[in-house]
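User: C-alpha cells for this one?
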Amino acid sequence: MRYSGFRVLAEGLFGNRGWKPVWREPEPKAEYDVVIIGGGGHGLATAYYLARNHGITNVAVLEKGYLGGGNVGRNTTIVRANYFLPGNSEFYSHSLRLWEKLESELNYNVMHSQRGHIILFHSDGQRDAAVRRGNSIVNQGDDAELLSVDQLKRMIPYLDYEQTRFPIYGGLIQRRAGTARHDAVAWGYARGADARGVDLIQNCEVTGIDVQGGRVTGVQTTRGAIRAKKVAIIAAGRSSQVAAMAGMRLPIESHVLQAFVTEGLKPVIDHVVSFGMGHFYISQSDKGGLVFGGDLDFYASYAARGNLPMLEHVMEAGMTLMPMIGKAKILRGWGGIVDMTPDGSPIIDKSPIDGLFLDCGWNYGGFKATPASGWCMAHLMATGESHEVARRFRLDRFTTGHLLDEEGTGSQHNLH
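Assistant:
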C-alpha cells in the first residue's frame, strides 16, 4: 500500500475501512541467512538496507517486545551532522543526507523537520571551539554558521540574555539539522523491510547465541531455536548482555538518559537549542510539547527510568537558559538505556566470532545515526568490509589505542 494525499482523503470519505496492517506477523522460520537481534531503529534500518541495497531478504529481525519500543521511542528526536572529529564527521554527514530523502525513499511520513540546531557558547574559549567545529563541519561539506548575540536575539528572543553567570556570547547553527518523529522512523523502516520479504518477529526474546568451532550457527529464543549463517547484535543498551551470551565482554557501560515533555503549548520554539554551559537541549514537538533532556544519570543501570536528582539538574539548566520554561507543566518523563563506550564513539564491526557482527556504543548519538548505521551495518554484513564512512568504528581500537574521542573525555566513563 502506498500513501498519498488522495488516499488519505478517500479513506476519510469511506470510513477508513481500506487501510491494511503495515507489516505482517510471521512465525519464525527454522533458518535464515541473517538474524538481527533488536527491533529498534538501527536493527530495522539494517534489515531494510540489506534487502534494498544488497538483495538479501531471507532475514529475521527478533524483538523481545514490540518494534520501536526501545531507545528509538525514548529519545529527544534530534537529527544533526555537526560532529568535529574525522571519522564521526563524515559518518553523520552521510546520515543527514539519508535523512533528507528518507520520506520519499520509504513513502512514509517520518516528520523530518529541518528547523535548525543552535549550539550556544558562553565564553571566549567556547567561542573559539565553536569556530573550530564550524570550520570542520564546512570542510566536511555540511553547513555551519556563526551567529552573533544580535542575530540570536532576533531568532530566539526568549533566552535570558541578561544573566551574568553564563552570558551568551553567540551561537553556532546548522540549518539543515532538526528533528524527526522517532516512532515513525521505526515504523517506516519496518514497513519497508517487510515489503521486501524480511520477517519482523515481535515478542521473541533471544536467550542464547549458538557458537560452534569459533563460528556462530544460530540463536536460542523464547519461540524456539533459529539457525542462521550470520547474526547481528543491534540491541543498544542491552548489547553487553546479549554479547555475553556468546562469551564476549564489550567495552560498554549502560546508563540511563532521561528526557521530558511538557503539556502542549502554542508554537514558541522554532529551532533545536543547546545550552553550552550545561548539558541541556530543547525543541518543540508537532503536538506542542517542549521536549528536552540533559546529562546521563551517572551510574550504570538497565532501568528505563531515571532519578530525581538528575531531573532537578536538567530543570535547573532549563530555567537558567530560559526562565519562561518554569511556567510549563511537565506531562511525562522517561529514560532510555544508553550504551556508552569509553571514547564516546560507536562500534560497527565484525566480532572475534565468525559470522557475528556488532552495532552498538551509540552514546548520545543513536537516533540521528539511524539511517547511516543501518546502511553501513548492511554493507558490512553483505560484503564483509566496512563502509568507507564507518571504517573508524572498529572494535579493536580499544586495544590498539586508536580511540575516536569525540566527547573529549578520554577513557573516564564518569566524565561523559
